[in-house]
Amino acid sequence: MKVLIPLPVKSENANDALKGRVFEVSLADLNKDEEQAFRKIKLRVDEVQGKNLLTNFHGMDFTSDKLRSLVRKWQSLIEAHVDVKTTDGYLLRLFAIAFTRRRPNQVSKTTYAQSSQIRQIRKKMFDIMTQQATSVDLKELVLKFVPESIGRDIEKACQGIYPLQNILKSPKFDVQKLLDLHGDNLDTGSKMGGGREFKEPEIQESV
Q: What spans are recorded as compositionally biased (Basic and acidic residues) (predicted)?
């Protein structure tokens, strides 16, 4: 990805002007896959080497159109978030949302979960995100976001409590770690492929 930047003022070093800058790009552009257009990736410039900007993962979010398309009547929306540290020392805040769905052969059109079920589901979401994030480094964790492997684990673990669907996650640094993360691939891009004690947040039963 090529970046055009304005010329720095005389008192400002060009490298310093670039460090810390955050770019937001579509995952569809990074992976050349239009099916991923609803994912927005934030990359932060942590180091400048000549004409190469070494960026680090700064966050992932979803387009507002994607989120609006998932919200429907007669279902419960369940949210959870957790602060985690990867094995290589990066701190992230992970957010997850899930929506209830009908049970097999259910006649009623409503799929509202009870307050006790929402608490159990949120605890499962918290535990799975913590376990998955604290057992890998940042690079491995980012690769888990795209195929939704964490979401599938949450969905499977919560089946006995209440069926879920459309589970989405959104995550909200040291030069040597950054160089290790990039390896030798400075000129060509590549595809992106211990938590705190649980604290029960406010319940949002339905939308």
A: 194-207
Backbone angles phi, psi at 163, to 5 degrees: -60, 140
Please report, for the chain, the start and end positions of each structural domain, with discontinuous segments joined by +: 14-182
Q: How many CB atoms lie within 10 A of CB 60?
A: 21
Encode burial over 121-151: b for 16+ CB neighbours within 10 A, e otherwise: bbebbbbbbbebbeeeebbebbebbbeeebb
The model's confidence at residue 127, banded by pLDDT at 50, 70 and 90, is very high
- Report residue 179's pLDDT band, with 50, 70 and 90 as the boundaries: low
Please give the DSSP secondary-structure letter assigned to residue 177.
H
127 vs 140: CA distance, rounded Å: 18
**Who has greater pLDDT, 185 or 13?**
13
Residue 10, phi then psi, degrees to nearest 5: -60, -35
| Residue in this structure with the two tokens 């700064």, named with its chain if needed | 58
- As a whole number of Å, the CA-based R_g of the chain is 20
Rounded to two decimals, what is the model's pTM? 0.65
Q: Which helix (H) or strand (E) holds 42?
A: strand 39-49
Residue type, 126: F
Has residue 186 got a pLDDT over 70? no
